[in-house]
Amino acid sequence: xxxxxxxxxxxxxxxxxxxxxxxxxxxxxxxxxxxxxxxxxxxxxxxxxxxxxxxxxxxxxxxxxxxxxxxxxxxxxxxxxxxxxxxxxxxxxxxxxxxxxxxxxxxxxxxxxxxxxxxxxxxxxxxxxxxxxxxxxxxxxxxxxxxxxxxxxxxxxxxxxxxxxxxxxxxxxxxxxxxxxxxxxxxxxxxxxxxxxxxxxxxxxxxxxxxxxxxxxxxxxxxxxxxxxxxxxxxxxxxxxxxxxxxxxxxxxxxxxxxxxxxxxxxxxxxxxxxxxxxxxxxxxxxxxxxxxxxxxxxxxxxxxxxxxxxxxxxxxxx
Length: 319
What we know:
Blueprint: E1 3-7, H1 12-24, E2 29-34, E3 48-52, H2 58-65, E4 70-73, H3 84-96, E5 100-102, H4 118-130, E6 138-139, E7 141-143, E8 146-147, E9 168-169, E10 174-178, E11 185-189, H5 191-202, E12 211-213, E13 217-220, H6 221-232, E14 237-241, H7 243-247, H8 269-285, H9 294-298, H10 307-312
Parallel strand pairs: 1-2, 1-4, 2-3, 4-5, 5-6, 7-12, 8-11, 10-14
Antiparallel strand pairs: 9-10, 11-13
Helix pairs in contact: 1-5, 2-3
Keywords: NADP, Oxidoreductase
InterPro entries: NAD(P)-bd_dom_sf, NmrA-like, NmrA/Isoflavone_reductase-like
Pfam family, one: NmrA
């Protein structure tokens, strides 16, 4: 039995992981931290509860973390200026004697060209610092690459994750590619596979790796485009952009992203959608989404969903 605290537990990725944790064990205690009023517990599965916390109150946060074995953080970086909430959570976890901690990663292996995720690198450095003299907190950086579910947009292919389109739009059979980088690789993992790996990692008896890559499928851009053509039974309209234009903030395409993440305000929407597409393109060609495979090696029996098989199950012709 493991006592697990989920910080930022109302988020979409967090809820996918919570579902996997509940399904994986009847014995674990899963405590969801919330800054809002307590949620009704009448319909909660066995072992699942909510606790209201104040990330700026160190004493109460330490108390909330007493007897917790593992903390999984899904704190939304855009809502955590200067990463204070997550740093306070790390400090309190150490004081409370928490064994394991996973910071709010859940994506690429770095924040290069993606300033909205700059806090991730700050938290990585902070975790290094607190363990400088001796290890006081075991941690891993869960990095599944890009959620494969986004390729199925506008169709929802998981319980909680909102469909978001990306630079390969299978529904409309179009793509944006960076000139000269068709062989750049990225990792695609379904959010369900990522959640299932996390549920197994919580009970993993060995040492957690610092870098925790989860590699569902590793493909190049050209390979992904070929898969898209087979799945959609037709050609794609491909627009090519120059890397130097993207690095200068210029996006010369006839279309851009359409669906915004719930954490982005409507006032920020237009500029943010452009920035995200530019950032994902640049970070892809620079290897930011080509994550490692530490958890694949530690959990060799786990079978991941294949990208082509996954996309073939999407009802592309539905309205």
